[in-house]
């Protein structure tokens, strides 16, 4: 039974991470907007040595390649993805720096030099060996270099964890891969269609999010990343952007810099704003936010246990009751939250409890069908813990 991203992709000969990009211009504008909020304006890439690990389709790397870095190294071990990356670069008309494709895992990769920019999106999660790989990546950075990784926010993860529980409840995880893909697309394609800016196909999305066994472990939070690499790196930016900094720049020296502590505080103060990608509201109780985050992590474990029991053909009564009890508890914690969030989660709970298990009921328009969290949060970090010393002679 596959456990990791790579084993899962390998087992089914897939790389379910294509962007349905429309035109290249739009794709590049999206990437430019993302990097800009992470402090990576295009000039930062020009002439830089860039590394991207876990490249997937290669479509994101093409934007970086078009900014004319001095070198671009792409590390990707999945044979399907490698084939697609080769095709992409063979066929593109965009002027670019030719990348060097390293067909191996990050575990096996040891570069000959450091990099100014290190990118790794939508792969590394919270399990110990992936945290170790995160530290390995950080070790590749040159002084003043910038690393970009993706994190997950447990509150933003909740709506899709409910979808994952619905996937188990309505669609036996032991069904053949193609059949299950088809049924899950029936359930969730209408949900995905409510997001006008969505760039992944429903098939890719269900395979990577509802079927991928590694999905549960991608829940690596911003504080987790700072704990792993915060001794050598300072938080720089995020997308979505939620941290405002009213501190006077003149106080931001020596011990006063504390960018990681500041980022952690902003994260905890804003946890409520990740539940629904369409909402932003005020909720000043930070302790409540932290308690809800913990409950969402417990929910993650209950959904994983429920799915494991279903895969093992066990009796599901207890594990399913845990899922329901945990979600009911979370909804209780949100009693003062906006109606839109509560109604969405309650509709999800109702679908979970529905005995009929009709896929079309899940697919139908409801307050839950449009509820998606701000799940993935990009984080950039800079290796400026010891700020550069400049020669005053010039
Ligand atoms: C969810 S995909 C993300 C792809 C791309 N970064 C994106 O955001 O579209 C995860 C990627 O990690 C790659 N991957 C899995 N295990 C890896 C490993 N041990 N070393 C390097 N890459 C790996 C997979 O092959 C896949 O391309």
One letter per element, helices H and strands E, the order comes to: HHHEHEHEEHEHHHHEHHHHHE
CATH topology of the largest domain: Rossmann fold
Ions and ligands: S-adenosylmethionine
CATH-defined architecture of the largest domain: 3-Layer(aba) Sandwich
How are the strands ordered across the major sheet?
Answer: 3-2-1-4-5-7-6
Structural class: alpha/beta
**Range of helix content:** 40-55%
Question: How can the largest sheet be summarized?
Answer: 7 strands, mixed
Unreliable stretches covering 5 or more consecutive residues:
none
Average per-residue pLDDT, rounded, comes to 96
CATH classification, class level of the largest domain: Alpha Beta
Count of individual beta strands? 7
Number of domains: 2
| Overall geometry | globular
* Count of runs of 4 or more consecutive helical residues: 15
Outline of this structure?
With 394 residues, the chain is α/β, with parallel strands linked by helices. The chain contains 15 helices and seven strands.
How does this model look, in words?
47% of the residues lie in helices and 11% in strands. Helix 8 crosses helix 9 (202-211). The protein has 394 residues and is α/β, with parallel strands linked by helices. Helix 5 (79-91) links the parallel strand 2 (71-75) and strand 3. The protein starts with a helix and ends in a 12-residue tail after the last strand. The protein folds into two domains: 5-153 and 219-241 and 377-382, 3-Layer(aba) Sandwich (Rossmann fold), CATH 3.40.50; 155-216 and 278-374, no CATH class. It is globular and about 60 Å long. It has 15 helices and seven strands. S-adenosylmethionine binds next to helix 1.
